[in-house]
Amino acid sequence: MLRSFELHRPSTIAEASALLAARPDAALYAGGTELLLLMKSGLMRPADVIDVKRIPDLGGLVDDASGLAIGATVTHRMLERSAAVRARWPLVAGVAAHVANVRVRNVGTVGGNLAFADPHSDLATLFLVFDATVRLVSADGSRELALADFVRGPYETARRPDEILDRVRLLPWPSRTGGVYVKFGLHERPTLGVALALTLDGGDRVTAVRLAVGCVSPRPHRVVTAERALTGQRLDALSGLADDFGALAASAVNPVSDLHGSADYKRELTRVFARRALIASVARADGLALGASYPHAIVV
Amino acid sequence: MRVVREVALAAPVERVWRALWDVPRMVACVPGCVEALEVEPRRRYEARLSQRVGPIALSVPLDIRVTEEAPGRLALEARGRDGRLATEVHMSVRLGVEAAESGSRLTVEAEGRVLGTLGALGASVIQRRAEELVDEFAARLRGELGG
Q1: Scanning A25, A202, B37, B113, which has its CA 20 to 30 A from the CA of A266?
Q2: Residues A241, A203 share a domain
């Protein structure tokens, strides 16, 4: 049951910020896929709800030389279907197409997903391999934060109560970079997400590696030790390093036991799927189709 | 959830032991603890514990009973319910203090259950918050006792 609250519908970011400055306990509402669950269960009882869906400036999707700027109220479905995103950011469109289910994707927003910081989510993990930054706006001004610093832990972010996340920006990869995202889970939300991107030089040598692991630790994070282990290697040597790569990823996570599995199980999953992500990345860099399929897993 | 910690303290055993029975000091050391009250000396206490997990605020009035007291050893049970969140908290905490090279060593063994709506957030979130609570308690106690 939803308890009563006062609904505000600002039409500009400035109006929303002014509302929020005066009512720091207000809840921001966009897609509502997370917020309404909490409100219906009584875990959140905001006296004021600020609907930011109608603010045009939060709904932009801009792809230019500086990267992909995704407005906070852009839905997963919009990302999935945007021609520009599909053409220039296929991994982003591909992952968006596999977030939850189509009902959630139709209304759930990118900004809401990041700001809610559910540990079992795909986007934050994926965006880490694009060195994403988020912009937080308040009545006092705005600040830009690395996504890695924005997500502090399960359901906790660096957003102050008077701030609105207005957009996330993904940086373009260097040329000759390819990536994959692998997720595994038996439940509605993923148990594990692994994002991996490899950058090659003209001689097929790896010049940069980006590996992010999500869902198993309190927050998604890059795994620098595993990234270093591949940097400088030749593409045709990577398959031989896949076991070590998996082990390095597994040793970097910090899982606890819950309904998704025991801590040991999650560490093992990380090892296995980091290895598989590497093998898939190598295949993609070689221009081969991703032939592998694994039960309960999605490879994008 | 279960949290086990060993904390090295510079203060001698007697000072640590006294601090554990000092209500205002304990209120200062337990994060989110307010309104503690001695109901029956060394037997029963009441306190309110407030915690925030992301957007969710929990506030539980706890009924705390000392179930065991022996030299250097203390066990207590705490129970409470946040009616607004339809959530119950049960905790059992064992504390031990013994002499060590540094001065003394405090062992904390906390076991607890969060039942009801908040449990829906998932065991991992609650486990982590419990670990943060015990670690913060240890850090504050160390501060209170001067290292």
Answers
A1: B113
A2: yes
